[in-house]
Amino acid sequence: MPLSPKQTRALLDELAHFPNKKLGQNFLVDGNIVRKSIEMAELNETSRVVEVGPGLGTLTRAILSTGASVWAVERDSTLAEHIRAHVLPEQPRLHFTEGDCLDHPRAGLPDELAEAGFKIVANLPYAVSTPWMEAVITGPQPERMVLMLQKEAADRYIASHGSKAFGAISIFLQSAYVAHSKHLVSAQCFHPAPKVDSALLRLDRRADAVHFSAAARQCIRGIFTQRRKQLGALCKRAPRPEALQWFESLLESGVKPTVRPEELPIEHWQRLAHKLK
Question: Where do the domains of the chain lie, and which CATH numbers do they carry?
């Protein structure tokens, strides 16, 4: 059973640990949401699962209860010691790494196992959600991700072109994944309660996933730093000549010369990815 709010507070007091706001430590205390995460992930004894920030082990134990094997990474030294002392000894299917998820985006899951197929189930801190996501989708890609995110981050991941939330990460992620469900989660489901609502998001990998090279990602991120300017002017100043060639091909296909980055559909950005392989 997931830890209740009272049990979570008691365990944090026992560890003399005060939740670190900078690390986004908001501990999930709603058993229904834990069960919903497991249900959305569709896990069994053959599943390999990556978890970011296991914290007190609430979600970790729920994943392990399905028979799945878990690779988890935790940055906080106090919580890492708790996992090593109280969760790891009783769970032979748990593989644990203490460190930053940006350095270990797949929590130490070996490449050969990642290539064979894996899933990610995680409660992601807002500060690292976008760089972590970009690191994940540029390596061996999980077949499914079930992510607890601040609603703002979830909105950016699945934003459509033409919206203010649409940006580089929207392009990279949606070129590889389809969002199948988004479940809003109240701040009261966490301890301490954050000042914003969250969303539980399920993402499934596309069969025709488009890969963006490091050069393509750098170029697109650079363009979106000045998203209100016209795309043509941005491409003229881009460090790679392929960007201007790409924009000229857009004009030939009927795109307006005054288009701004956030107005351009994803399929056009994918053409830039093919130019900058």
Answer: 5-205 (3.40.50.150), 214-275 (1.10.8)
